[in-house]
Amino acid sequence: MPAVNDTKFQPAVFLLTGIPGLEDVHVWISIPFCLMYVISILGNSFILFIIKTDPSLHEPMYIFLSMLAITDLGLSISTMPTTLGIYLFHSREISHDACFAQLFFIQSLMLIESSVLLCMAFDRFVAICNPLRYASILTTPRIAKMGLVSLLRGVVLILPLPILLKQHRYCKDSILSQSYCRHANVMTMACSDISVNIIYGFFLTVSSTMLDFLLILLSYVMILKTVLSITSHVERLKALNTCVPHVCVVLLFHIPDTALSVIYRFVKNSSPIFLTVLGILYMLVPPLMNPIVYSVKTQAIRVRLIRVFVK
Fold it and tell me: pTM of whole model > 0.85?
């Protein structure tokens, strides 16, 4: 009997989901997704190539930008196999261990990206509010330490999630609402008590991405205060313009992340199509748009990109 019960309540796989109701056109939907992945990977690779090959870009702002590009490449590679597998080959099944591994990499990289965005906000704060000490504060060893702390923070805080999920038994018909694995979604498939997962997930949200966003907001309040004290209108606009790409990237990252977290935890009867589309935007848009935003709004990157293609 125990063996029978284990078979009944412990399916070997989760089922991932594409866009509900549009299964017949999944192959066609895969075309824009493929293009988005290609643009994302090429765009972030170009950013890394330009920064690496141009010594004049070996400055704190661009070193942080290269960290962001590496993280975005990791995110694209982490979600691409299951997402394209669903839309191209109708391959929905994913084993528990593979799902837990995927969510570990995805959510670690998301937390690392949140930390890198906070580091970039600190870079803009020092550059505008304390420009004379910019070079002495953001030295190369200190930037390396900030990058290492961001990496360790992401790994250490996310590691308990797959460990907690492995303790649960999962019911039949474990159908996830996304084309990739996410802790908030996977834990709802468990037949056993998930109170610890909910508490830790809430702690994780508050102590990481929410805290990062509040610190970024605080840094921009102080930046705005400093900018408004500048008498020259031209200099004021110039200072604000250096912050525009970062503000855009922060909004692209935090708005979908917050919306998904709130919906999974507090909204019981949300639309499956809305959840799926929001989940796709959450994972595909930031890695796609980050290199585009910085290429368009940052003159140094834009000029070097033009030189590459002109040659």
Answer: yes
